[in-house]
């Protein structure tokens, strides 16, 4: 930890102090700001200067074994706030939440620098607690959690969404002192690797609020080329292989379709339209797309996209979703329905889909996703 309090309760933040100045504090008795147990000042040559509990502690805000990356990351963020004059609290404990963000900016941004694996359930609980109490939570990831080729369950829980940059997540590069954004993240059916773009900023040279607001203010596009028929063919081959190997999920999907007088291996191409839905659906997207067509078939007079989303949400269960606490489920469903039906409407993908009247009522403009 980078903060502590003395016997009178005065809090000190050593993140911006020199080694020499910190050494002058050694003879003072210091205590944890949360559990009030004694802490020791460590001011060596290798690790960044910090405080640590004298004994193993049950402190609910600080865990022992804090890495150099985590300490340096907090100091880097604090320095950026000082440089640009942002009011902030380092390691501010929020008693009503029983949580301590790494840095609280302007009593609004709860910034967490996550360097090590964390149970998804715990991350969801922390995120929801921040949001329910009016804080904007920003998860910055350390080196071990940076996006590489595929998204883990934990990384999915760290993803955000904006109508300007789509799915995105944050990284903090302590070694290079930069904040990095992975955006336009996509993972298509039959692809294990993600596609994404990146932008980074030197932490000291750009106002932190400007960086964190970038997903809502950016105006740019990225052109990507997809070989749709190849993707569809690979998906068909994948499902055929799963059925041959008696995969339980594939067999359950086949049974469900059989009850609808359909066959998984002879479904029209528009069930395999390449949409970046693997980011948030655990269940096979073929099943979710079938739900969409059933909804449209039940309403031949046409439906608004909002109505399709509401009815689809009623069909889905918690088991169909990855945990993504930083994005409202309604936003995810609007994105999926808009993207899927827009692509079907534009391309057809093989034999003509039914319910063309209903499809024609789905808005195509990207900036209408949030509507």
From TrEMBL:
Residues 16-62 form the Competence protein CoiA-like N-terminal domain. It comes from the Bacteria. Pfam families: CoiA_N, CoiA_nuc. Residues 66-179 form the Competence protein CoiA nuclease-like domain. InterPro entries: CoiA-like_N, CoiA_nuc. This is Competence protein CoiA.
